[in-house]
Amino acid sequence: MITAAVLLLAACRIEEGPTTAWEGDIQSWGTLREALRDGEDQGRVAVADVAAEGLYAVGALEGLRGEVTIVDGEVWISEGDAVAPVTTRGQPGDARADVQATVLFAADVGEWHEVSVEEPVDPSVFDAFLAEQARAVGLDTTRLFPFIVQGGLSHLSLHVIAGECPIRARMMGADMTSPPFELHSELVEGRLVGFYAPDSAGVLCHMGSQTHTHAVLEQDGGLTGHVETVGLARGATLKLPLP
Q1: Across all residues in the chain, what is the average pLDDT?
Q2: Which pLDDT score, from 0 to 100, does residue 18 have?
Q3: pLDDT the model gives residue 86
Q4: Nearest residue to 201 (alpha-carbon basis) of 168, 177, 178, 232
Q5: Sequence-distant (≥ 6) Cβ neighbours of residue 243 within 8 angstroms
Q6: DSSP letter for each residue of 66-86
Q7: Under 8 Å between Cβ of 47 and 68
Q8: Quick one: which of 119, 114, 123, 138 has its CA closest to 17?
Q9: Cβ contact 199:127 at 8 Å
Q10: Helix (H, G, I), strand (E, B) or coil at 157
Q11: Across the strands, what pairs with 217?
């Protein structure tokens, strides 16, 4: 039986050549295992000290009280509240000096290769689609690399952490005392900032995933959050770092 996922990947397939590991500058502070499982959620780095032009990052604030995303140096912070998280944003140099991240993964990217999304990408094949397109432009998909997306995001589910991780709680079958803010949208315009990181469960990715992705949305005053599921609409632009 041929599934929709197989048909989608076949439609996106491009002739592949030799692959090269992306050797850009990647920095990391903390791991998901430390912050979410072991309770070591202390501040490890001042976000303002990291933000710079050309830098892209995803992470969680100290105390797991919110999410942080950096897009080309612009800092987006959404502080967790199950009803209405508070979002702030600032350019390099004017980001809040008091904000610390307990987990942060950052990449300095000078040039991007743009890929037009010609057919909708279902959330079930999002990771596979990234790998397919990365190999097509010569990236080694056994190694970590950053990516960004601009355009229509379909079937988006995200959360803004507020002290406890809902993904880990579901995995453990545990009740939550501080539930996160959650957003579910069939289609919304926005941006994704993420890392494709194979074999990184517990370090950079959650179990069962090969990506750690944040969304940045401009609507209703702005919001950034940790993506649980997302697809791509036709016409969106995927950007991959040049090998």
Answers
A1: 88
A2: 64
A3: 93
A4: 168
A5: 19, 20, 21, 22, 137, 138, 139, 140
A6: EEEEEETTEEEEEE--SS--E
A7: yes
A8: 138
A9: no
A10: strand
A11: 223
**Cβ neighbours of residue 107 under 8 Å, at least 6 residues apart?**
24, 25, 26, 27, 55, 56, 57, 146, 195, 241
Spatial CA neighbour of 58 closest among 66, 240, 189: 66
What distance in Å separates the CA atoms of residue 51 and residue 186, rounded to the nearest whole number?
31
Yes or no: say if 201 and 169 are a contact pair by the CB < 8 Å rule: no
- Ranges under pLDDT 70 in the chain: 1-18, 93-97
Q: Decide if 65 contacts 79 (C-beta within 8 A).
A: yes
pTM score:
0.89
Looking at the DSSP bridge assignments, the partners of residue 46 are 100
**Tokens standing for residue 236:** 């969106």
Token readout for 117 is 């999304």
Count Cα neighbours of 160 within 13 Å in the Cβ-side half-sphere: 26
